[in-house]
Amino acid sequence: LSAERAASLADAARLRTELDECRRNLDRYKDATGKDLAALEAEKATKSVLETRTKAQAELNANLADQAALFKEQRDLAESRAEKNGLELAALRARVAELELALQEAETRVRDGEVVRRKLHNTIQELKGNIRVFCRVRPLSSEEEGSRGGGGGGEQQQTDININNRVALLSVPASGEGKALEVFQPSKGGTNTATDRDQKHNFTFDRVFSPEAPQEEVFEELSHLVQSALDGYKVCCFAYGQTGSGKTHTMLGSQDNPGLIPRAMHQVFETAQHMAAAAAAAANQQGGGGGWKWDMKAAMLEVYNEDLHDLLGPGPPTGKKHTISHDDKGNTTVSHLHWVDVADADKVSFLLNRAMERRAVGATAMNDRSSRSHFVFTLAIEGTNASSGQKVKGLLHMIDLAGSERLDRSQVAGDRLKETQSINKSLSALGDVISSLANKDGHVPFRNSKLTYLLQHSLSGSGKALMVVNVSPALESLPETLCSLRFAAKVNACEIGTAKRQITMNK
Ligand code: ADP
Ligand code: MG
Question: Would you place residue 43 in the very low, low, confident or very high pLDDT band (cuts 50, 70, 90)?
Fold first, then answer.
């Protein structure tokens, strides 16, 4: 029993020990577990923070992905734009190069144009008016040469004439810059050269052409005025002088040696064509269309015995006359006058020939109609610029006047007297009109002759005029030469108001 008891006591002791052990373990466990729970709690908190962060990060990522997609889209767009811009840039560079070239060309043209314009401007300044007077001395004819006694070779720029041992001398002094003319009137019984006893007459004009001056030199001075007609001015060019002094030679010339009218026609049509082409080229570059379009018409008439005669058309019906009327816009109309469309200089030259034939038919043996009537050639110039709407209306009158020689009234009668009176009347009216314009008279006697009335608008404020006074160097012509030169000097002193262009704008 005691053994049993001892055994159970031992068991009890062991159990107690074990219990103690368990208690200690439990305490230890409790300790440990308590710590872990705190850690666990802490971990839980951390986890929740991390979860929140992760969620936020995911959202951020999603945003970034969106942004990346957007950036990519934008990059693609930018790339395609850059490519397109590259192509456009190349095109722009080519266009710039093209424009630079055009600009250079235009600048050259402007410069060239400026040179001409300045020259014209200077000339106008120099002349202080719109009427310019030139004097042209024709060479001696072969008959006049033939009747010259002896050698008599003159100095340069001089034409000396020795007929029956008398001398007349027309000299263009070099110092006069082509503007001065000296006329020596020989004293009775004069010698082969000009002497102190000779009476000397000095004249100055805008230009003096010596007998050697070729047609192109005379035309060069007119060409500025031809351009003015294309610019919309009314231009008149007269040839004045006694019969045989070279008016028709100056105006018409011959086939081989054309005068002012055919040369002016070449210039008009050539320049018109140039202007049309230049304007068309400029318009094409700007993608527009159309340049200058020209409408040219010619009329030719004769003023004989204060009546107008159409040289191209049939004239007025029987019993009627041509009448001249003006409107307040500066336009002049001649009733029943036949205008012919002309597109080139050849057409004009064809018409000129026809007109001259008709004039010749009107002449009789006693009566050279061509020297007893004024021949008026008119070119009406109308230009329209399709792109700018600008319209110019110019007029070019070229007039071969009747011979200015005075006839002794006691020697003529009948038709010849009437002719003479008509010519005297119209030529002196021309001189009066010009000086009256110069004096700025309130009344200008345009109506005193058909010729001045016809040319009223071209001679007054809006016109430009050029008179070529032709003189013969022959001694026998000296009185008439002096008369012509005095008439010219009177006209030369004149200043007509500022010329105006006739331009209208459509647009
Ligand atoms: P107008 O018409 O004044 O009566 P013309 O023009 O018929 O005079 O000239 C008379 C002549 O003189 C013509 O034979 C013409 O060829 C000649 N003549 C006139 N001027 C010149 C000139 N500058 N050079 C050469 N010949 C001329
Ligand atoms: Mg003539």
Answer: confident
